[in-house]
């Protein structure tokens, strides 16, 4: 029987053509023709004020920490149930991470618990739009305004997903906080192997973002002819990807609608076939709040115990299907557990033990979804 992977990168067919074109154009380092095409499209389509492609979302988050002038002793609030990059970016600048629990009904951070974590040292809140489903941004931006904090949206999962606030205006995720960070890693919806983007929505960061992006130099302004020599003017690093990566990404962006449509079909197939489980107290399916859209980044089920999750993973493995769990609470990680002095984060630990991600990729067929959902059903019935 054929092996069903957890993820399979989807190629639109034009990637190699655009890479060849980039090579033929004779400039394959960063900030060229394809980089600008991608950045312009993101700005126009999603209303980000300024976009810079980066070599990863990790790099975009590191740029954000530099832009916010994070210093030793500053505190940054983020969920514990997330990827390590958001924490690392701020730890690298000496910040203390204040971990927030997840919501009861969703792995994203519990917005109602943020305010009690704010102290005079708090500098930023980093919401993660888990599975591309928006956090309650009215609440988060309200706290940011009240306490004069920055908001960096970790939108790694969240391309082409939206939030509708109390004002009724629908806004792209990553365009609401001061800064948004995206990933084009091969496990995300739109890919370039490794790759990412920083979206800058606060104009005070425009000039400095270009400088940090280009190793702390004012080279971007120099190439636009605004200054006659370029200099080392700030800290920075090599955050920009080569044109080869941008050319690949452009082929994906041209097919964004097609990719999203297919992913949403797959998501709905999973949901339809597992719908009856909503009556079952032993398993929970993803919840999409009324203010959020679903960009079909992933499909998961939340099991009632680690044992139940293991037995489903085992049964699927016997059917040659690879299903995986996701994050492990960062506050309990080998690197952070000794430093962590806060309260127990029960929901974060529950998702660490019980959340199961099902295979999700463009070419996933209906028959395979049947096989996967039937296997889950049988395992739950047998338990
Ligand atoms: C994938 C991911 C990242 C890191 O993205 P890279 O592009 O691989 O650096 C950061 N945050 C979250 C929530 C992610 O899922």
TrEMBL record:
Enzyme Commission number(s) from the entry: 2.6.1.59
EC category: transferase
An example Gene Ontology biological process: polysaccharide biosynthetic process
Assigned keywords, A-Z: Aminotransferase, Pyridoxal phosphate, Transferase
Residue numbers annotated as active site: 188 (proton acceptor)
Entries under InterPro entries matching the protein: DegT/StrS_aminotransferase (IPR000653), PyrdxlP-dep_Trfase (IPR015424), PyrdxlP-dep_Trfase_major (IPR015421), WecE-like (IPR012749)
NCBIfam families, A to Z: ECA_wecE, PRK11706.1
Name the record gives this protein: dTDP-4-amino-4,6-dideoxygalactose transaminase
Species the sequence originates in: Gillisia hiemivivida
Gene for this chain: rffA
């Amino acid at each position: 029987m054929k092996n069903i992977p957890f993820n399979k990168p989807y190629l639109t067919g034009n990637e190699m053509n655009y890479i060849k074109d980039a090579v033929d154009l004779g400039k394959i380092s960063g900030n060229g023709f394809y980089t600008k095409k991608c950045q312009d499209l993101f700005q126009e389509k999603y209303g980000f004020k300024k976009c810079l492609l980066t070599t990863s979302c990790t790099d975009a988050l590191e740029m954000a920490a530099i832009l916010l002038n994070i210093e030793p002793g500053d505190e940054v609030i983020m969920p514990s149930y997330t990827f390590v990059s958001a924490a690392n970016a701020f730890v690298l600048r000496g910040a203390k991470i204040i971990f927030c629990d997840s919501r009861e009904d969703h792995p994203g951070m519990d917005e109602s618990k943020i305010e009690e974590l704010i102290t005079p040292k708090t500098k930023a809140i980093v919401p993660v739009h888990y599975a591309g489903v928006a956090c309650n941004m009215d609440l988060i931006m309200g706290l940011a305004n009240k306490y004069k904090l920055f908001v960096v949206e970790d939108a790694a999962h969240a391309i082409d997903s939206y939030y509708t606030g109390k004002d009724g205006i629908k806004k792209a995720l990553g365009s609401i906080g001061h800064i948004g960070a995206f990933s084009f890693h091969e496990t995300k919806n739109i890919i370039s192997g490794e790759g990412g983007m920083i979206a800058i929505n606060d104009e005070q960061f425009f000039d400095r973002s270009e400088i940090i992006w280009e190793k702390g130099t004012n080279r971007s302004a120099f190439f636009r002819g605004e200054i006659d020599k370029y200099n080392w003017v700030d800290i920075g690093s090599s955050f920009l990807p080569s044109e080869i990566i941008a050319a690949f990404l452009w082929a994906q962006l041209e097919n964004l609608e097609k990719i999203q449509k297919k992913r949403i079909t797959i998501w709905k197939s999973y949901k339809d076939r597992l719908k009856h489980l909503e009556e079952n107290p032993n398993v929970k399916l993803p919840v999409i709040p009324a203010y959020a859209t679903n960009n079909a980044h992933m499909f998961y089920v939340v099991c009632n115990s680690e044992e139940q999750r293991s037995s489903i993973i085992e049964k699927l493995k016997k059917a040659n299907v690879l299903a995986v769990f996701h994050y492990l609470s960062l506050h309990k990680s080998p690197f952070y557990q000794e430093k962590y002095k806060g309260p127990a984060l029960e929901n974060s630990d529950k998702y660490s033990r019980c959340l199961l991600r099902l295979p999700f990729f463009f070419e996933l067929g209906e028959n395979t979804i049947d096989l996967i959902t039937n296997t889950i059903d049988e395992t739950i019935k047998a338990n």
